[in-house]
Design goal:
Helix content is about 40%, strand content about 20%. With about 300 residues, the chain is an alpha+beta fold.
């Protein structure tokens, strides 16, 4: 019995080792990649302007505790025995209850508004586009953007994503595979989701050779011609972004246009990744689809 249990455990460990090795040794080992990133998951100062609390004209009931107005009426088990059967006191009592309910509802709405402003819902959106290797000019454009962009400022991030999406939109003849996704999370959890997706993409290259303008020299010995360039655009935004499921060139155009239209106040973080980056590095179709099974042909 013990031997049989030990055998099952050994088989499970062997299978796990095989799967792990096959995962950490992806098809495109020793590939180079580029990355441009910037932003933070702190809301701009302007968004912290909470609505001022207005004192509603509720006939002075909410000021009765401070010596003003007539205050909240005192409940009595026999309200209708006063003032001629309770006519006036009943009206006062009903108005007091209505005022208390309205005040409670107003405070609840104000609390929800404050929570929405301090911890808004963030959309983490991703678009991946595989381009034919003939798009070397786009690869050079990405290198230029990495060296000149200012992703550390809101306006710099907006300018960067607009220039990138425009560069991609101008050459649909190179589009070959695509994928898009969106995830929603509160602001205090969105950074973890953003980093999770970014790390999955970054793990597909062995070395990032161009990061925010900093170049790392590398010698690449290509043993076969390259076929594709994979570009990934990842954003975190307070704008409720909805991306289409990528099936056609029109879907890609819609997705890129949506990302390019995000405003500076709403674009919290941005990350652009592409591979290969170094001159002479290659990416074949088999390597592309093996590492990115969610990509769909266009």
């Amino acid at each position: 019995m013990v031997k049989r249990h030990f055998g099952k455990v050994l088989c499970a460990l062997t299978l796990a080792a095989i799967l792990t090795l096959s995962y950490v040794s992806p098809a495109w080992a020793a590939r180079t990649g580029g990355r441009i990133s910037g932003g933070s998951f702190r809301m701009p100062t302007s968004t912290y302007r909470l609505p001022s609390r207005q004192v509603s004209p509720s006939y002075g009931y909410n000021r009765g505790y401070y010596g003003g107005g007539i205050g909240f009426p005192v409940f009595s088990p026999f309200p209708f025995f006063f003032v001629g059967g309770g006519g006036l006191l009943s009206v006062v009592l009903l108005l007091g209850v209505a005022g208390l309910i309205a005040q409670t509802v107003q405070r609840f709405q104000e609390q929800r508004q404050e929570e929405a402003l301090l911890n808004p819902t963030v959309t983490v959106a991703q678009v991946q586009l595989a381009l034919l290797a003939q798009a070397r000019s786009l690869q050079q454009e990405l290198n230029r953007l990495a060296q000149t962009a200012r992703p550390d400022t809101p306006q710099g991030r907006v300018q960067l994503i607009q220039e990138l999406t425009l560069a991609l939109l101008r050459h649909p003849e190179y589009w070959s595979y695509g994928y898009a996704s969106t995830e929603k999370a509160p602001l205090n959890q969105a950074e973890s989701e953003f980093n999770r997706i970014a790390l999955q993409v970054r793990a597909q290259v062995q070395k990032e050779t161009l990061v925010n303008g900093v170049m790392t020299p590398v010698i690449v010995n290509a043993d076969q011609p390259g076929e594709y360039i994979l570009v990934t655009v990842l954003v975190a935004t307070t704008t409720p972004v909805k991306l289409p499921v990528i099936h056609t060139l029109a879907d890609v155009k819609n997705a890129l246009t949506t990302l390019g239209s995000i405003g500076a106040d709403d674009l919290l973080a941005l990350e652009i990744l592409w591979a290969p980056q170094a001159e002479g590095d290659t990416l074949t179709r088999e390597e592309l689809v093996t590492a990115n099974p969610l990509l769909r042909p266009l």
